[in-house]
Specification:
Structural class: alpha+beta
Radius of gyration: 35 Å
Largest sheet: 5 strands, antiparallel
Number of strands: 5
Length: 170
């Protein structure tokens, strides 16, 4: 066998080695994090629940999920060990992380300034222009806002008695 024939296999084995090595490092880091848990630290479970560690055993952890409410979890169910500032900010709503002073309003009405001198001319006209009707103008049909010969408004921009059998239903 030549080297050219073996080269794809060698590259494939090398890629598999690198991928398993990376995954193994992540697993070891997660196991180290779980082993370094101490009572009193805040954690987030893999289900997204925040709790405080009360006791650490070999394979289990006793968590206080609310004052006076305790639950036993497997160590593998701990997704992250949080530092005190982050835990207090998330659970208790403490604003330890301050933003640059930007305040986001609860509703959009406070984003626009109410101008008492605004006139009706400032409103946007959303009516379709006859020259912009596009396909209606090509069919020879009148626009929606156009008046028919007898003064009644045409429905759906179509003339009465259309040859293709449409009744104007939407």
């Amino acid at each position: 066998m030549s080297l050219v024939t073996l080269l794809p296999f060698i590259v494939l084995i090398g890629a598999m080695f690198l991928m398993t090595r990376s995954a193994k490092k992540k697993q070891q880091a997660a196991a180290q994090m779980r082993n370094d848990m101490q009572p009193g630290t805040g954690v987030r479970t893999i289900g997204g629940m925040y709790a405080t560690v009360k006791e650490v055993h070999d394979d289990t952890v006793l968590l206080e999920v609310a004052p006076g409410v305790h639950a036993v979890y497997a160590k593998n169910a701990i997704g992250a060990v949080l530092d005190d500032d982050e835990y207090n900010r998330i659970v208790h709503g403490d604003d330890a992380l301050t933003a640059d002073g930007t305040v986001v309003p609860d509703d959009a009405s406070s984003l626009i300034e109410a101008d008492a001198t605004a006139t009706d001319d400032s409103k946007v006209d959303l009516v379709k222009e006859p020259e912009a009707a596009g396909a209606d103008a090509e069919d020879g049909a009148e626009p929606k806002d156009a008046q028919s010969k007898d003064g009644a408004e045409a429905k759906d921009g179509a003339k009465d008695g259309k040859a293709d059998g449409e009744t104007g239903a939407k």
